[in-house]
């Protein structure tokens, strides 16, 4: 049976050549050779039985029939291109997450653990946006956010992840010398560094170990735990921080915990998201993994993968 429609290769070669009026430029766009473009156009002309171009040396000019055919064909090809881009975007949204996170959680916990998630979901892509503060409207281009606080933000689901257990940290050298920290009362020999979003944490710790708290609020304040931790490493004072944020510094010996005592406060790191995000399979997979990994880091290797292909929402 004789075909009644040209091939897509012939149409693409013709449309690109007509736009550029050059087989060479069309070849560059289509990633084939100029001779291949010329053959496809010649095949199309033979199929249609009309000349689509007039050739004059190296110059290429559309014929009258070529102009008419281009006006009919180009809109259809543009529709195909647009539909294909839409499908590529849909595919991307099933494997791509955009996260807004407090900086220290991102640098000290999420990025070191992210390869474990990618072992389970190798096609997953994580994008980062600037941190969304609690008084800002949740951006439409952010899948989810990790915030530090009490978990009482409006218009989003807030699920506790980690970080309500606080420990005292100091340098190893702070355990020696005239101002050595040997008992809980010795903290008052040092500057107590504060985090502005957990202003009462030192007071809670002092109450917990039953010591004077009159100087518990006097130290410098920091907006980010990463900066506060760096300040401790560099000798500005001692800190009271979420224990999970200083795992690497403790492991490397940059910091130590002078006491085994910890205190739980009514703040922590929360995963926040609009409830409709649960319709995204990749977000459901990420949420399940994140909750398990924060609960027990050993589970970061073992969370069973969910299906996240586009057809799961069909």
TrEMBL record:
UniProt keywords, alphabetically: DNA-binding, Transcription, Transcription regulation
Gene Ontology BP term (one): DNA-templated transcription
An example molecular function term from Gene Ontology annotations: DNA-binding transcription factor activity
Gene3D superfamilies: Periplasmic binding protein-like II (3.40.190.10), Winged helix-like DNA-binding domain superfamily/Winged helix DNA-binding domain (1.10.10.10)
Pfam families documented for this protein: HTH_1, LysR_substrate
Top-rank taxon: Bacteria
Xref: PROSITE patterns: HTH_LYSR
Domain HTH lysR-type: 6-63
Assigned protein family: Belongs to the LysR transcriptional regulatory family.
Protein name (Swiss-Prot/TrEMBL): HTH lysR-type domain-containing protein
Native organism: Herbaspirillum rubrisubalbicans Os34
């Amino acid at each position: 049976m004789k075909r009644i429609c040209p091939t897509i290769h012939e149409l693409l070669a013709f449309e690109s050549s007509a736009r550029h009026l050059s087989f060479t430029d069309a070849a560059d766009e289509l990633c084939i050779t100029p001779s291949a473009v010329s053959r496809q156009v010649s095949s199309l002309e033979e199929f249609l039985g009309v000349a689509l171009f007039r050739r004059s040396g190296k110059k290429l000019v559309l014929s009258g029939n070529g102009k008419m055919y281009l006006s009919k064909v180009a809109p259809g090809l543009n529709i195909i291109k647009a539909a294909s881009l839409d499908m590529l975007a849909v595919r991307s949204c099933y494997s791509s997450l955009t996260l807004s996170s407090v900086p220290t959680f991102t640098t000290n916990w999420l990025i070191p653990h992210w390869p474990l998630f990618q072992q389970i979901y190798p096609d997953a892509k994580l994008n980062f946006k600037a941190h969304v503060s609690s008084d800002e409207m949740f951006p439409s281009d952010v899948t989810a956010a990790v915030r530090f606080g009490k978990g009482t933000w409006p218009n989003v689901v807030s699920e506790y992840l980690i970080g309500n257990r606080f420990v005292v940290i100091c340098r190893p050298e702070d355990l020696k010398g005239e101002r050595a920290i040997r008992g809980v009362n010795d903290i008052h020999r040092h500057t107590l560094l504060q985090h502005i979003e957990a202003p009462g944490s030192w007071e809670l710790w002092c109450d917990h170990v039953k010591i004077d708290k009159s100087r518990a609020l006097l130290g410098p304040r920091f907006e980010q735990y990463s900066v506060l931790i760096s300040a401790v490493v560099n000798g500005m004072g001692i800190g009271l921080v979420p224990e999970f944020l200083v795992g690497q510094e403790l492991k490397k010996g940059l910091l130590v915990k002078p006491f085994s005592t910890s205190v739980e406060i009514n703040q922590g790191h929360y995963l926040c998201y609009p409830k409709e995000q649960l319709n995204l399979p990749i977000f459901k997979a990420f949420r399940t993994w994140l909750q398990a990994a924060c609960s027990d880091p050993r589970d970061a290797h073992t969370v069973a993968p969910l299906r996240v292909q586009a057809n799961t929402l069909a």
